[in-house]
Amino acid sequence: GHSRLCWADLLAHGLGRGRYEGGTDAEGREHGFGTRVYANGNVYKGQWELGHYHGFGEFVWKEEVEDDRTGHKTERVCGVLACIWEQGRIAGGAVKEGTYKWPGGTIYKGQFAIHNRGIKPNGVGSLTDCVGTSYVGHWKLGRRSGKGKQIWSVAEFYDGMWEDNLFHGWGLYHQREVWYNGAFIKGKRDSSESGGRECTLNNGSESYTGQFKDDLRHGLGRCQYEDGRTYTGNWRDDQWDGYGTLTWMTKEKAVGEFRLGKFTDTVLFFEAGSKEPMSRTELPRPWYEDEAVPWGELEAEGSDSEEEAGTE
């Protein structure tokens, strides 16, 4: 609409001449420092040369807002751009630089491009919003792309690779007690394209090193638990699944196939230091207590318990 900033061949202007206050040359053209208020409300304040923006200047454009209740129309600022100008055009060729401010308090400082008659962060720059969230890094036409760091609070940040505003590539994410150093694909933890490089996740009670897929532990990995247990082996959808070894703090071990986080009848149990498996009747009950083996079960998967068999 006519209330918006108009861009013509990268020239910023308003509709109509409006009014001007400031320096002029012998022919009456804007020259030196001055302010022009255009008929549509847009304002340029800064350096001029022979009637063109030239040097440092700030351009403010406005939009017309209609009150739904009264029907009255008022103007409000919809953007402020401060940058260097050359003969009426934003300086810098394809790579331009400046400061852009939104009405709500969000500020962008850095490189940008003119795209679809608008300004888009493009290149390297920093953005800080009104609640304190900040991003410093690379942009591509208004989207975080490339290396960058975003800080939400003192307890949450991400430092790594981005693509189309999503974590994508290798990065470090921290939120309170959670630390993840690893690969992402389209915003999810995923090491499918990391070339075998291991990821690490620590949430305060568990420490995992291994592979991820679709935001879950998946593939080969090793997890150490708060109670001293360690599981090393295959994972599927965040659970032990496949061949693996569960080691207790007291060095007893369960070795074999796991399914959906539970033992199968192929699992063999070993006392600390022993190479000979124990029979299931010899197994100490504490090994199977929920607090000791939350993902295990008393009987092997697929077998019948005494109660299920009808014995007493």
Kindly state the percentage of residues in helix: under 10%
In the predicted model, the low-confidence regions spanning at least 5 consecutive residues are 1-15, 288-312
Structure annotation, total helices? 1
As a whole number of angstroms, the C-alpha radius of gyration is 32 Å
Number of strands: 26
The description of the largest β-sheet is: 24 strands, antiparallel
Quaternary state reads: single chain
Q: Report how far the terminal alpha carbons are from each other.
A: 84 Å
Q: How are helices and strands ordered from N to C?
A: EEEEEEEEEEEEEEEEEEEEEEEEEEH
Mean pLDDT value:
83
**Per DSSP, what share of the residues sits in E-state strands of 2 or more residues?**
over 45%
Shape: rod-shaped
Class by helix and strand content? mainly beta
